[in-house]
Structures are given as C-alpha cells and as structure tokens.
Amino acid sequence: MAGGDLILTVLAARITADIQAQIDALVAQFGLQVTNTRRLADAAGQSASIDCLEQRLAGAGGAVEAVRHAALVLSETLDVDIVIQDAARDQVQPRLVCFDMDSTLIKTEVIDELARRHGVGEEVAEVTERAMRGELDFQQSFRARMSKLEGLDESVLAEIAAELPLMDGLERLMVNLKRLGYRTAILSGGFTYFAEYLQARLGFDEIHANELVIENGLVTGEVSEPIVDAERKAELLEQIALREGLTLDQTIAVGDGANDLKMLAKAGMGIAFRAKPMVRAQARQAISTLGIDAVLYLIGYRQSDLIDAP
C-alpha cells in the first residue's frame, strides 16, 4: 500500500450536498488527497434507491485506524455508511463470500422464534441476556437455550421456514453473486433446517450450521457435534478457501454478532451488517443503513454491472 492509500465508499439512500461537505471535511481533517472519484450508483432514475460514491485517497500513512474510526462516527451522525478499505482491494479478486444467517440473511433469530412457539420465549431471552453480560460463553448459552426446546413438534420448523423474512436486498445480492461466479456459503450458529431452506430458495453453494436432533417427530433439545461457534466459523471459512484454492484475501465474510467477529477478522473483507455497536467498532467494514446488496458496491461493482432480482 503506497503511503497509506485508501478507498472511501459512501452508501446512502441519497448523498446530499451536506453529506458530501462533511465527508470532504473528514478527508481534509486527515490531510488526505482525493486521487480518483467514481459514482457507483445513482438513486436518480434507478430501480434501487442507492447512492454510492467511491473515492481513492492518498496520504493516510499510519493513521488508517484513526480514519476508519472517524468515518464510523460520522456514519452514525449522518445515518449513512462511510466505509474505509485498503486500496490494495483492487489487486485482489474475491471469489468466496461467507454469511452468518440469523439477523444477517434473515430478519429474525430463529431460536427465539422456536422458543416463542414453544411457550418458553421469555426463558430463552433470559439466557441470551446472561450471555450478553458475559456470564455464559456461546456454547454454554446455546446448550442452555436448546434444552428449553425439548418436546417442540417438528412441524413447527416447517411453519417457521415458510415464513422466514428475508433481509432487504438479499435476492438481488444472490442473483448477482451467482451470475458473477462467486462461491457462497452460510456459516451459521443457527440450524441446518433453515439454512437448507435458504440454500434451496436462493442457491447458496454450501451450508454449515447446527443440526437439531429430532426423535419421534419432536425436538430433543440437543444438537449434533461440533457446534458452530465463533471459532468454528473462522475455521470453516479458512477450510473452504483452502479447498477452493483461494487465499484468505479472496474471501469476504458478512455477519452481525459477536460470534462473527473471528470470521470477519479472518476474511480479506470482513463486513459487520446491521450489527451491534461493539461489532461495528471491531469490524474493518460496516453497513448499517442499506440492504445487504450494498456488499456488491464494497467489492467495487457499479450499478451498470448489476441486475435486479427477478
């Protein structure tokens, strides 16, 4: 990277003159020079209401993390996404995209929905809260929540799968990733039953999630080993890349939770999507205001390179 060269990408429903002025001030604050500007998407006259501007910046030197932090703060102030990447992105062609599932590909946490249907929603929420306070690690929390699903009728799984609310922009994202030749994978701490449903509907190449143990038509409250936790997600990303003959620089990971951070750190591009503040702060890139198809612009595609979902 020559002299700390960066790519700054602005994503918004509309990039107003005020937004542009504040981004210009951010660039000036760090003494950066704009060497190139591209408009990747223009909401005017487009079926997708997305404005996207990409600028090449020179001169960041050792201030890259400071620039990234300032961009994140400004993003939250303006309610837009301002994403900082290393300009070396242009020297690598990503080929593998790995996704978390719950609250990333779908607008729900399936385990909470299962618990609600089984009449133990509040009990499961309490366990989740203990995990958030750091009293339980992911595996402990997961097993504790799973145990409360014992006796749930298998038919409920099909009902929930049929009603899964897809994340905004997901169908457009998948149509384009498949068309452009990317390999796609779901790496989820959720359940294979629902990942398989998304795979069949949207064409993911492979899925890795937790297998519910069902006996006599009832959920037992157990899952098959190994449990897909943060470490397992990162391992799977690396294993898939190795198997496909790819470097980690050629991988992208997208997730929203703390148990995605290791996967996001391992990937060449790690994107926190509509994530909690702690996850946004630790991830190198974050998208919070637009649909998940905004990932396509972070890779560098223009509106004219893309097609809409059927």
Name its key features.
about 300 residues; alpha/beta; Alpha-Beta Plaits; Rossmann fold; 2 domains; four-stranded antiparallel sheet; about 40% helix; about 25% strand; elongated; PSP; magnesium; hydrolase
Characterization of this structure:
A hairpin with a 2-residue loop joins strand 8 (212-215) and strand 9 (218-223). Helix 1 (17-29) runs antiparallel to helix 2. This protein is 38% helix and 23% strand. By secondary structure, it is of the alpha/beta class. The protein has 2 domains: 1-91, ACT domain (Alpha-Beta Plaits); 93-109 and 165-310, Rossmann fold. The protein has helices at residues 17-29, 64-78, 110-117, 121-132, 138-147, 155-162, 170-179, 192-202, 230-243, 261-266, 277-282, 295-299, and strands at 6-12, 33-41, 51-58, 81-86, 96-99, 183-191, 206-210, 212-215, 218-223, 251-255, 269-273, 285-287. The model has no long low-confidence stretch (mean pLDDT 93). This is Phosphoserine phosphatase. Its cofactor is Mg(2+). Pathway: Amino-acid biosynthesis; L-serine biosynthesis; L-serine from 3-phospho-D-glycerate: step 3/3. It catalyses: O-phospho-D-serine + H2O = D-serine + phosphate; O-phospho-L-serine + H2O = L-serine + phosphate.
